[in-house]
UniProtKB/TrEMBL annotation:
Location, primary (coarse class): endoplasmic reticulum
Subcellular location: Endoplasmic reticulum membrane; Microsome membrane
InterPro entries linked: Cyt_P450, Cyt_P450_sf, Cytochrome_P450_Monoox
Keyword Endoplasmic reticulum appears in the UniProt entry: yes
UniProt record similarity statement: Belongs to the cytochrome P450 family.
Membrane topology: Peripheral membrane protein
Superkingdom per UniProt: Eukaryota
Function: May be involved in the metabolism of insect hormones and in the breakdown of synthetic insecticides.
Listed name of the protein: Cytochrome P450
One GO MF term: metal ion binding
Cofactor or coenzyme needed: heme
Length: 202
Protein backbone atom coordinates (compact mmCIF):
# COMPACT_ATOMS: atom_id res chain seq x y z
CA UNK A 1 0.00 0.00 0.00
CA UNK A 2 2.76 2.43 0.92
CA UNK A 3 4.45 1.76 -2.43
CA UNK A 4 1.29 2.88 -4.25
CA UNK A 5 1.06 6.02 -2.10
CA UNK A 6 4.74 6.77 -2.71
CA UNK A 7 4.30 6.20 -6.44
CA UNK A 8 1.33 8.58 -6.59
CA UNK A 9 3.27 11.18 -4.62
CA UNK A 10 6.26 10.91 -6.98
CA UNK A 11 4.01 11.28 -10.05
CA UNK A 12 2.17 14.28 -8.60
CA UNK A 13 5.45 15.91 -7.55
CA UNK A 14 6.95 15.26 -10.99
CA UNK A 15 3.94 16.77 -12.79
CA UNK A 16 4.02 19.78 -10.45
CA UNK A 17 7.73 20.36 -11.10
CA UNK A 18 7.24 19.95 -14.85
CA UNK A 19 4.37 22.48 -14.94
CA UNK A 20 6.42 24.86 -12.81
CA UNK A 21 9.34 24.55 -15.24
CA UNK A 22 7.10 25.06 -18.29
CA UNK A 23 5.69 28.20 -16.69
CA UNK A 24 9.17 29.47 -15.81
CA UNK A 25 10.47 28.85 -19.35
CA UNK A 26 7.34 30.29 -20.97
CA UNK A 27 8.83 33.76 -21.40
CA UNK A 28 11.02 32.46 -24.24
CA UNK A 29 8.53 30.23 -26.08
CA UNK A 30 8.10 32.74 -28.93
CA UNK A 31 11.84 32.71 -29.72
CA UNK A 32 13.26 30.42 -32.43
CA UNK A 33 14.68 27.17 -31.03
CA UNK A 34 18.16 25.86 -31.73
CA UNK A 35 17.81 22.31 -33.08
CA UNK A 36 18.16 19.46 -32.38
CA UNK A 37 16.59 19.70 -28.91
CA UNK A 38 15.28 16.73 -26.92
CA UNK A 39 13.00 16.42 -23.86
CA UNK A 40 14.93 16.69 -20.56
CA UNK A 41 18.29 16.75 -22.39
CA UNK A 42 17.57 19.91 -24.34
CA UNK A 43 20.48 20.74 -26.65
CA UNK A 44 22.95 18.91 -24.42
CA UNK A 45 23.74 16.23 -27.00
CA UNK A 46 25.19 18.92 -29.25
CA UNK A 47 28.00 19.37 -26.71
CA UNK A 48 28.11 16.29 -24.47
CA UNK A 49 31.13 14.13 -25.30
CA UNK A 50 31.93 16.10 -28.46
CA UNK A 51 35.47 17.26 -29.34
CA UNK A 52 36.12 20.96 -28.81
CA UNK A 53 36.03 21.92 -32.49
CA UNK A 54 32.63 20.23 -32.91
CA UNK A 55 31.28 22.02 -29.83
CA UNK A 56 32.43 25.29 -31.37
CA UNK A 57 30.76 24.51 -34.71
CA UNK A 58 27.52 23.60 -32.93
CA UNK A 59 27.69 26.81 -30.92
CA UNK A 60 28.08 28.74 -34.16
CA UNK A 61 24.65 27.50 -35.21
CA UNK A 62 23.29 30.20 -32.92
CA UNK A 63 24.52 32.74 -35.47
CA UNK A 64 22.81 30.98 -38.38
CA UNK A 65 19.32 31.78 -37.08
CA UNK A 66 18.03 34.98 -38.66
CA UNK A 67 16.70 36.49 -35.44
CA UNK A 68 18.40 38.64 -32.78
CA UNK A 69 17.54 36.20 -29.96
CA UNK A 70 17.64 32.41 -29.89
CA UNK A 71 16.55 29.96 -27.21
CA UNK A 72 18.30 26.72 -26.39
CA UNK A 73 18.18 24.33 -23.48
CA UNK A 74 20.82 23.06 -21.06
CA UNK A 75 18.93 20.09 -19.73
CA UNK A 76 15.45 21.35 -18.88
CA UNK A 77 16.58 24.95 -18.30
CA UNK A 78 16.03 27.49 -21.04
CA UNK A 79 18.86 29.79 -22.09
CA UNK A 80 18.66 32.77 -24.42
CA UNK A 81 21.55 33.64 -26.71
CA UNK A 82 22.21 36.66 -28.90
CA UNK A 83 24.75 37.69 -31.51
CA UNK A 84 23.61 41.31 -31.58
CA UNK A 85 26.17 43.68 -29.97
CA UNK A 86 23.48 46.21 -28.98
CA UNK A 87 21.45 43.58 -27.10
CA UNK A 88 24.59 42.17 -25.46
CA UNK A 89 25.54 45.66 -24.28
CA UNK A 90 22.10 46.18 -22.72
CA UNK A 91 22.34 42.86 -20.89
CA UNK A 92 25.89 43.46 -19.66
CA UNK A 93 25.19 46.98 -18.39
CA UNK A 94 21.70 46.59 -16.90
CA UNK A 95 21.89 46.30 -13.07
CA UNK A 96 18.99 43.82 -13.16
CA UNK A 97 21.28 41.24 -14.81
CA UNK A 98 24.37 41.66 -12.65
CA UNK A 99 23.71 38.49 -10.63
CA UNK A 100 25.39 35.57 -12.35
CA UNK A 101 23.29 32.58 -13.52
CA UNK A 102 23.87 28.99 -12.42
CA UNK A 103 26.17 28.24 -15.36
CA UNK A 104 28.96 30.31 -13.73
CA UNK A 105 29.13 27.72 -10.94
CA UNK A 106 30.78 25.30 -13.37
CA UNK A 107 33.91 27.50 -13.41
CA UNK A 108 34.44 26.82 -9.68
CA UNK A 109 35.78 30.35 -9.19
CA UNK A 110 33.27 31.83 -6.72
CA UNK A 111 35.27 34.97 -5.99
CA UNK A 112 36.62 35.87 -9.44
CA UNK A 113 36.00 39.33 -10.89
CA UNK A 114 33.85 37.85 -13.66
CA UNK A 115 32.28 34.97 -11.74
CA UNK A 116 31.53 36.24 -8.22
CA UNK A 117 28.09 37.10 -6.88
CA UNK A 118 26.83 40.63 -7.45
CA UNK A 119 27.60 42.00 -3.95
CA UNK A 120 31.21 40.78 -4.09
CA UNK A 121 31.62 41.83 -7.72
CA UNK A 122 30.31 45.34 -7.00
CA UNK A 123 32.85 46.05 -4.24
CA UNK A 124 35.73 44.63 -6.28
CA UNK A 125 34.69 46.52 -9.40
CA UNK A 126 34.43 49.78 -7.46
CA UNK A 127 37.96 49.33 -6.12
CA UNK A 128 39.34 48.58 -9.59
CA UNK A 129 37.49 51.29 -11.51
CA UNK A 130 40.21 53.98 -11.12
CA UNK A 131 42.68 51.67 -12.85
CA UNK A 132 40.46 51.41 -15.93
CA UNK A 133 39.79 55.01 -16.87
CA UNK A 134 39.73 55.90 -20.57
CA UNK A 135 43.18 57.52 -20.63
CA UNK A 136 44.86 54.43 -19.17
CA UNK A 137 42.95 52.08 -21.47
CA UNK A 138 43.94 54.11 -24.53
CA UNK A 139 47.58 53.85 -23.50
CA UNK A 140 47.24 50.05 -23.74
CA UNK A 141 46.19 50.11 -27.41
CA UNK A 142 49.78 49.89 -28.79
CA UNK A 143 50.37 46.85 -26.56
CA UNK A 144 47.16 45.22 -27.81
CA UNK A 145 48.25 45.89 -31.40
CA UNK A 146 51.79 44.61 -30.85
CA UNK A 147 50.86 41.27 -29.34
CA UNK A 148 47.80 40.76 -31.53
CA UNK A 149 50.13 41.08 -34.53
CA UNK A 150 52.51 38.56 -32.92
CA UNK A 151 49.56 36.17 -32.57
CA UNK A 152 48.62 36.66 -36.21
CA UNK A 153 52.24 36.02 -37.26
CA UNK A 154 52.38 32.82 -35.19
CA UNK A 155 49.16 31.55 -36.72
CA UNK A 156 50.29 32.53 -40.22
CA UNK A 157 53.39 30.37 -39.79
CA UNK A 158 51.25 27.22 -39.89
CA UNK A 159 50.87 25.67 -43.35
CA UNK A 160 47.68 26.71 -45.10
CA UNK A 161 44.83 24.22 -44.83
CA UNK A 162 46.11 22.49 -41.69
CA UNK A 163 43.99 22.11 -38.56
CA UNK A 164 45.57 23.60 -35.44
CA UNK A 165 44.68 24.01 -31.77
CA UNK A 166 44.94 27.74 -31.09
CA UNK A 167 44.33 27.52 -27.33
CA UNK A 168 48.02 27.74 -26.40
CA UNK A 169 48.69 30.61 -28.82
CA UNK A 170 45.70 32.64 -27.62
CA UNK A 171 46.57 31.96 -23.97
CA UNK A 172 50.15 33.10 -24.59
CA UNK A 173 48.94 36.29 -26.28
CA UNK A 174 46.58 37.03 -23.39
CA UNK A 175 49.33 36.45 -20.81
CA UNK A 176 51.75 38.69 -22.70
CA UNK A 177 49.22 41.53 -22.78
CA UNK A 178 48.21 41.13 -19.13
CA UNK A 179 51.81 40.94 -17.87
CA UNK A 180 52.93 44.02 -19.79
CA UNK A 181 49.87 46.23 -19.20
CA UNK A 182 49.18 45.23 -15.59
CA UNK A 183 52.62 44.49 -14.15
CA UNK A 184 54.94 46.21 -16.63
CA UNK A 185 57.10 43.10 -17.07
CA UNK A 186 59.78 43.38 -19.72
CA UNK A 187 60.28 41.13 -22.73
CA UNK A 188 62.65 38.76 -20.89
CA UNK A 189 59.82 37.71 -18.58
CA UNK A 190 57.28 37.66 -21.40
CA UNK A 191 59.38 35.00 -23.19
CA UNK A 192 58.25 32.56 -20.50
CA UNK A 193 54.58 33.02 -21.42
CA UNK A 194 54.67 30.15 -23.91
CA UNK A 195 55.68 27.73 -21.15
CA UNK A 196 53.14 29.23 -18.72
CA UNK A 197 50.42 29.01 -21.36
CA UNK A 198 51.19 25.36 -22.01
CA UNK A 199 51.07 24.65 -18.26
CA UNK A 200 47.67 26.34 -17.95
CA UNK A 201 46.39 24.29 -20.89
CA UNK A 202 47.54 21.04 -19.22
Amino acid sequence: MWIVVLGIWVVVFGVFQFMKLVQKNGFAKHLPLLNPAYPLLGNGLMFLGKPDHEKFLNLRKLTSIDYPLTRFYLGPRVMVGTTEPEIAQQILTDPAWMDKPFIYEFFELPYGLLTSKYDIWKSHRKALSPAFNMKILQSFIPVFQQFSQKLVDRLAAHPEGTTIDIDADVTTCSLEIVLLTTFGFDSSVIQECQEIGSSIER
